[in-house]
Amino acid sequence: MPSTAIARLAYRPALGALDVQFVGGRVYRYFDMPEQVAQAFARSGSKGGYFNRAIRDRYRFERLPGWDESREDAA
After folding, report:
1. Cα angle at 36 between 71 and 20, to 5 degrees?
2. 16-54, pLDDT tens digit by residue?
3. Residue 22, C-beta contacts closer than 8 angstroms, at least 6 positions apart
């Protein structure tokens, strides 16, 4: 996933949430995330651009302490 802004992402279907790790290391979980939006984000040619257009300031979120490797469900 080459991106200058997004290091990795994972959709959590059981939670309806999307976890996003930014290249600086911070991890955020976005809630009430439609699976179609998460899939389009994963397929996007510009992850940072898609994030800014379709996710940022549109979904409730919280900062997570780190990436949960045990729940690696890539979008």
Report:
1. 40
2. 999 999 999 999 999 999 999 999 999 999 999 999 999
3. 5, 6, 7, 28
Q: Report d(CA 52, CA 48) in Å as an integer.
A: 6
**Pairing mode of beta strands 27-30, 17-22:** antiparallel
Nearest alpha-carbon partner for 28 in 49, 50, 9: 9
3-state secondary structure of 74: coil
H or E stretch at 61: strand 61-64
Amino acid 24 reads G
The predicted model scores a pTM of 0.87
